Amino acid sequence: MKAFVLKEPGVVGWAQVPRPKVTPFGAILEPVAVAPCSSDVHTVFGGGSKKAPNLVLGHECVARVVETGEYVEDFKSGEVVAVPAITPDWRARGIQDHNFKHASAPFSGHQLGRSQPGVFAEQFLIPDADTTLAKIPEGVSVKQALMCVDVVTTGFTGAEYGNIKFGDTVVVMGIGPIGLMAVAGAAMKGAARILAVGTRPVCVKQALKLGAGEVLSYKDGDIVEQVMERTGGMGADCVIVCGGDDQVFAQAIDMVRYGVGTVSNINYFGGTGFLPFPKFSGGRGMAGKTIHTELAEGGRVRIERILRMVQFGRIHPEELVTHELKGFDNIEKALYLMRDKPKDLIKVMVTL
């Protein structure tokens, strides 16, 4: 079958790959709509761990069930479902330690397009259908569901691990699609003041709509100084890192409050080496600042909860889709759009 694959680092293309075979608890699906992710861009162009030859890319998908294994109870052929980007190995021993994202190995929860073939193919396998696939409620569109499987859950994860309390001041660094959902999540968690950091006009407009009170730009001076000035020298209660280079990690520590502040990182830092930790603003190791570094929450229950928020009008993730393409062959064009980030882009969707 035809699939869009990573041929070698920095090189993508189309290839003929074997069709998947159903497993007893699994399901074979065919994509209905997909969305390339910045993680796909990192996988292709950013290095990282060695990948299998002709690895099928992609992990954001709404799909139709083609075939189910003999032990699958909740899904049937022909059903259109949301496919979570994070698919924990629910039968691994580490799950009982509540280690949902790294249960059997580092990043074992992030399998699609990484350690197993992804969704950019005519068909793909989900090994454990009943615990992974998510039912799409009545009234929720394919576009809305597609934004929930990764973008919404990842942004919300940043807010959840930020220990946000009612009345807090929150900084969101990076307002691409993930950062925008972190803004929305912070507002829902009770943040009184949200300072977003970004420059692209289309994202600035959306950040203000989702709850940011102000958007700061690197073009106007040092971001840490801007935040400290606006907080009377105290710093923010929470900083959610959603984008940027290695230096943003140190900046987040610089601008978060002593004793009670939390840095919640959901950003991917490519390559090897070390992230900087500032000694002074880190209290020379004793500042009492909490740091969380998290992979997104995934699995069936998580995504179905988020889909209910769409169903009842609490969030409108379809507004993140600024570009829509049609046809399987346009997956490649969509990937390059996510890499190049034109000024009017937030997220691109490909309908198959």
Largest sheet: 7 strands, mixed
Rounded to the nearest angstrom, the radius of gyration is 20 Å
- Percent helix among the residues? 25-40%
Number of strands: 16
Distance between the termini: 15 Å
Structural class: alpha/beta
Shape: globular
Mean pLDDT: 96
- Compute the number of helices: 9
Model regions low in confidence, pLDDT < 50 over at least 5 residues: none
Secondary-structure element pattern, one letter each: EEEHEEEEHEHEHEHEHEHEEHEHE
What does it look like?
The strands form 3 sheets. Strands 3, 5, 6, 7, 8, 15 and 16 form a 7-stranded mixed beta sheet that branches. The mean pLDDT is 96. This protein has 352 residues and is α/β, with parallel strands linked by helices. α3 crosses α8, α4 (177-189) packs parallel to α5 and α6 (223-230) packs parallel to α7. Helices cover 26% and strands 22% of the residues.
Question: What are the main properties of this structure?
Answer:
352 residues, seven-stranded mixed sheet, 16 strands
Any chance you could write out the topology, listing elements then pairs?
Layout: E1 2-8, E2 11-16, E3 27-34, H1 38-45, E4 55-56, E5 61-68, E6 80-83, E7 124-126, H2 129-132, E8 134-135, H3 142-160, E9 169-173, H4 177-189, E10 193-197, H5 201-210, E11 214-216, H6 223-230, E12 238-241, H7 247-255, E13 262-265, E14 290-293, H8 300-311, E15 321-326, H9 331-340, E16 347-351
Parallel strand pairs: 9-10, 9-12, 10-11, 12-13, 13-14, 15-16
Antiparallel strand pairs: 1-2, 1-4, 3-5, 3-7, 3-16, 5-6, 6-8
Helix pairs in contact: 3-4, 3-8, 4-5, 6-7
